[in-house]
């Protein structure tokens, strides 16, 4: 890995993004130790930005710091998964309340953007691409919450959504059959355009309860 492009943004933020992706895709498995010196060598940077990146991911809950031992990839349990999906439901329903109150023309714009992601997701489902389906599900729900236009709500959801993706990708807890994803997302697009907050709540609850 090279440092190409790292200079254009805060180095620690770019490193954190790279590491976050590798935790999600399993390159760094649950329980793996994050060696600061080795990572600095991989990224061709000093240890300072790596240390900052690791601390950022510790704060997000993806890594954990063990006293006198170092930093490790957090190992999520089925109980963690249950808490994560419950928190997702609360945050997505909060976003739904804001979105439902928007003018019809704005809801239609949001629904169009969501429909585009849902179409990609359906293509991934037909190709039986589980990893891509899960990532597009993550993108769909993150876009839904971001559409509320509340930066603090989006920030809170970002960490929860990443943890949820890790659970699904690593087989912690479970996720609904891929076929259910298509029905769920198409329904959410329609409910969002109508501003049907009760319908959105019910759809989100069914989807996350299945998980």
UniProtKB/TrEMBL annotation:
Residues 9-76 form the HTH gntR-type domain. Keywords: DNA-binding, Transcription, Transcription regulation. It comes from the Bacteria. One of its GO terms (molecular function) is DNA-binding transcription factor activity. The keyword Nucleotide-binding does not apply. This is GntR family transcriptional regulator. Gene3D superfamilies: GntR ligand-binding domain-like (1.20.120.530), Winged helix-like DNA-binding domain superfamily/Winged helix DNA-binding domain (1.10.10.10). SMART domains: FCD, HTH_GNTR. It holds the Pfam family GntR.
């Amino acid at each position: 890995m090279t440092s190409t492009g790292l200079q254009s943004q805060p180095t620690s933020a770019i490193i954190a993004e790279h590491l976050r992706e590798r935790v999600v895709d399993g390159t760094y498995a649950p329980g793996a130790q994050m060696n600061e010196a080795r990572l600095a060598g991989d990224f061709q940077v000093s240890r300072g930005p790596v240390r900052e990146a690791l601390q950022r991911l510790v704060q997000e809950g993806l890594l954990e710091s063990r006293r006198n031992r170092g930093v490790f990839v957090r190992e999520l349990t089925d109980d963690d998964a249950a808490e994560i999906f419950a928190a997702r439901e609360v945050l997505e329903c909060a976003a739904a309340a804001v979105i439902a109150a928007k003018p019809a023309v704005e809801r239609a714009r949001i629904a169009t953007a969501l429909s585009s992601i849902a179409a990609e997701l359906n293509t991934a489902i037909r190709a039986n691409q589980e990893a891509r389906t899960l990532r597009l599900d993550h993108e769909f729900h993150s876009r839904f919450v971001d559409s509320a236009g509340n930066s603090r709500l989006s920030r809170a959801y970002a960490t929860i959504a990443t943890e949820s993706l890790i659970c699904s990708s690593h087989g912690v807890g479970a996720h609904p059959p891929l076929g259910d994803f298509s029905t769920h997302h198409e329904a959410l697009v329609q409910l969002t355009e109508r501003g049907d907050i009760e319908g959105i709540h019910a759809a989100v609850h069914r989807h996350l309860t299945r998980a």
